[in-house]
User: Fold these one by one.
Assistant:
Number 1:
Amino acid sequence: MAEKFTIGVLTSGGDAPGMNAAIRAVVRTALANNMDVIGVMHGYEGLVNGEFRAMGARDVGGILQRGGTVLLTSRSKRFMEPAGQRDAIRRMNEAGMDALIVIGGEGSMNGAYALSQQGIKVIGIPGSIDNDIWGTNIAVGTDTAMNTIMEAVDKLRDTASSHQRAFLIETMGRNSGYLAVMAAIVCGAEVALIPEMPITADEVAATVEEAYKRGKTHAIIINAEGSGIGTMELAQRIDDLDVGFKTRMTILGHIQRGGSPTAYDRLLASRMGVKAVEALAEGKHGVMTGLKSKGIDFIPLADVIGNKRKVNMEYLHMAKVLAR
Ligand code: F6P
């Protein structure tokens, strides 16, 4: 009798809400297709160390609505080295793993590609609040993070407006302005600062002063973590220039990465998890699941890591127009 096909699954890099929903979908779809699943703990670090556990249907019960990742995650330096990858492949062979599903961001897809180049059957599922992964309209976790930001900014606007203040809010996005730009639209911010389009503190101050002159009761400024200007420095400069509003600042930080996934993220993660396993069953690998207008598609990992997802600058313009 032929041996069962065994899939490994891991989460890697920064966690993102919906990763658990993806794990659940992978495990249950695999079981439905008569495959076995091995959960790899702590991302690629656990792959190098052989931290494995068998995953049954009940092991993924009650996790659909939970943020974070039950498989835990890490940013593994050892796996970036050829020796680490060699050890990981050896561990996979010893455990009888025939394929691997990697749920994570840009760096995780780099690791997935490296393994696929060495003959391992790998499928990636994009999971990142930053939404900076090429090949998918949106990654698992981004929608939840957006909603977290929106809730926070709505609350901050209430108090900003009552005191006629300018509020600076720092969002995550070390290299990507996606969250900041989209937050500017859905939260009605006067200005968004993003890594892709640097502007000066004085330009921001001028925009805030214009808003004051137009009779606005508050100003909201969204500063992406990687914009090039520190949020505190920016607040100081605006205060120094006396633009009408006094400033206050809030750094949202890791709150954006936690919490129960939205319906959208649960659905996206479930669809991608199902499709990833079905693809493996059909003999497809070396690809990432991506959401496209026609549904879930498969994008070669080589393309995913060879391209940079850009923020659509139209949205930056849109935010500006809508803040009048
Ligand atoms: O998940 C991506 C990200 O949120 C970046 O925007 C941020 O810079 C980074 O993770 C911070 O993660 P950590 O503090 O866990 O290293």
Number 2:
Amino acid sequence: MGVFPKANDRCWCGSGKKFKRCHKAATSPVQPGRISRLRPVPDSIVKPTWADGGHADRWDEPRVKSPEIIERMRRTGRDAADLLAYLGTLCQPGVTTEEIDAACHDRAIELNAYPSPLEYPGPVIAFPKSVCSSVNEVICHGIPDDRPLRDGDIVNLDVTLFREGVHGDTNATFFVGEVDELSKRLVRVTRESLEKGIEAAKPGRPVNEIGRAIQTHAEAQGFGVVRDFVGHGIGEQFHTDLQICHYYHPRLTDIMEPGMTFTIEPMITAGSWKVRLWDDGWTAVTADGSRTAQFEHTILMTDDGAEILTTPADTSTHPYWDTEPLSTSGVA
Ligand code: MF3
Ligand code: CO
Ligand code: CO
């Protein structure tokens, strides 16, 4: 369902060649698959308001969190990160995204946590699964289904846990088998873009410095920055009103203060950054069918910069990286 260039149009990779002579073969569009029935969550797990068909209550949550809430967010964030790292090891040819979802769901429950995406309200349907799985040209919010991962795919898994009354939100893009060079560069530059955004996050600065740093890095590599989805304040609510754009937005001048918690989650495209939505109201794909990658951390603003709340305890469980660990990013 992704919309691809016509065979004789120029390819989105910038080679100047016709699409049919360039990335067409490598690009069989992701199609909507079959979605299995809702997985139950035991009554012993404390649930957010949207579980069991409820609404996502919104209230005026303080942007600066108490030390006690921050401690809870550290614990929930660390477990979300460890779960993401584990799910990354499952990204192998032949494994369906639904199997990855089942693993996420079961592990969340073992951790005494609710998988935040499950039943989160959307424009058409509530999100029916416990993790978002976004393959190739899917930018974000892909719904796990019966599609087996294929050699050469890239897949983003976005894990959010709710426990002790707070959310921890983190995602990463994984390689499935051997991927092409452009995809490798896209994934590396996206990870670097998150790192640049984190480095730009300093108390006293406006939040649009984050997007400026990300956009500068991604566009210097010839890549696009998705505008339609942004980072967000997070805490007792999954998404608060605080917006973190991943491109430079002159009017986003909220000043970063110690104690604030928010996500940075750039979505970077090999071609156009324009978005199309599937009929499910969730699955967002690039308008031109180009591949796209994303990385996300939940961060805490401290007196001297960002503390990452979603660093896994053991980064060696990330066998998919072909590059050096980055200095400030725990997901490396
Ligand atoms: N985790 C996503 C984010 O980074 C939100 C997913 S909403 C869902 O903000 F319902 F799709 F799960
Ligand atoms: Co997020
Ligand atoms: Co997320």
